[in-house]
Write a structure and sequence with these properties.
Oligomer: single chain
Shape: globular
Low-confidence stretches: none
Structural class: alpha/beta
CATH architecture: Alpha-Beta Barrel
Number of domains: 1
Largest sheet: 7 strands, parallel
Distance between the termini: 25 Å
CATH topology: TIM Barrel
Radius of gyration: 19 Å
CATH class: Alpha Beta
Strand order of the largest sheet: 1-4-5-6-7-8-9
Helix content: 40-55%
Number of helices: 13
Mean pLDDT: 97
Length: 330
């Protein structure tokens, strides 16, 4: 087969059509370079160019959605997530006080600017922007998942009021991301689409309707992805979501495998690499995981199940890329 461009490869894989090689990409945080639009774009381009990935998943700091509604965090001085210093919501009254925001202002505006710069500087490749689910953002505002779960259980009306406000903002923000040049959104419910955080009934009430509203706002984008974090996930209950691809930790405990999900949906699948062990995994095992995933066939993107750790070696990343492209560079 003739060599494809990156966009041709991605679009063919999304359609389940033959490709010259499976699209491949990894993404992760550089926690020290995520605090201005310029730093974030530079870090993203450095990671993209180092291994010539087939698409870019913009990976901003995970706190900025909650920052928009008033959470505060300590900026890290080492490679770790920011530390929460103050949560915006402490009770049901705090949930009711959440209001829609202008998605062009504040930290939302900062990240739209970063997205625009990235698309400008990587014009030959599809870029997807991370958007957290309303449930995950409102829970962050409560300081912990357990705190939101308790508030939602005791005052469902207050929880739904907060979720509606967040959904309106995140839907508008998702549309703005597409207008800024993103090919789609990387939609992430974080820990909530996991039985370790809530059961299916809770998610049906407080997650699903708001997820679908945000995804519906960008339904026409060609490269929307549902990303389900954590082990013991609820992916089987979300396979009807209107996205082009599913990404999850297919090697995580209690999670379906790539082959399990291939049997249930014709949509593109993204995974194969165990990100939890990538920093220390021997290269032979990296290659073995990659080749096992690639055997699923058309419609497969070779990726990790989530963000890779900052300590992942260049040789490890190169082994993933080489497996997809059919030649060893390690």
């Amino acid at each position: 087969m003739a060599e494809m461009t990156k966009r041709e490869r991605v679009r063919a894989a999304l359609a389940g059509a033959p490709v010259d090689h499976a699209p491949v990409a990894l993404w992760g945080h550089d926690f020290l370079r995520e605090w201005t639009a310029e730093e974030l774009v530079a870090a993203t381009l450095d990671a993209y160019r180092a291994d010539d990935w087939d698409f870019i998943k913009l990976n901003p700091r995970a706190t900025y959605f909650a920052e928009a509604w008033g959470n505060t965090y300590e900026r890290p001085t080492e490679q770790r997530q920011p530390r929460l210093t103050a949560a915006a919501v402490h009770d049901a009254a705090g949930l009711r006080a959440i209001r829609p925001l202008d998605p062009r202002e504040g930290v939302f505006g900062e990240h739209l600017r970063a997205l625009w710069m990235l698309v400008r500087d990587a014009s030959d490749v599809d870029v997807v922007q991370t958007v957290f689910s309303p449930l995950s953002v409102v829970a962050q505002l409560c300081g912990s998942d357990a705190a939101f779960h308790a508030l939602a259980t005791s005052d469902a009306d207050a929880a739904h009021a907060a979720l509606r406000a967040a959904t309106g903002t995140l839907s508008a923000y998702a549309r703005a991301c597409i207008a800024a040049g993103a090919s789609g959104i990387f939609f992430a419910p974080l820990r909530w689409a996991s039985r370790d955080t809530c059961d299916e009934a809770f998610y049906r009430a407080f997650g699903r309707p708001y997820d679908l509203e945000v995804l519906g706002a960008v339904r026409q984008a060609p490269f929307n992805i549902l990303h389900v974090c954590r082990e013991h996930n609820l992916l089987d209950a979300l396979l009807d979501y209107p996205v082009a691809a599913f990404n999850w930790a297919d090697r995580g405990a209690g999670n379906p495998s790539l082959r399990d999900v291939r049997a249930r949906t014709p949509k593109a699948l993204m995974g194969g690499i165990d990100q939890t062990r990538l920093a220390t995994m021997p290269l032979e095992e990296v290659r073995a995981q990659a080749l096992d995933a690639l055997a699923v066939g058309d419609g497969l993107f070779l990726t990790a199940g989530c963000a890779i750790p900052p300590g992942a070696r260049a040789a490890t990343r190169a082994a993933v890329a080489a497996a997809a492209r059919g030649a060893s560079r390690a």
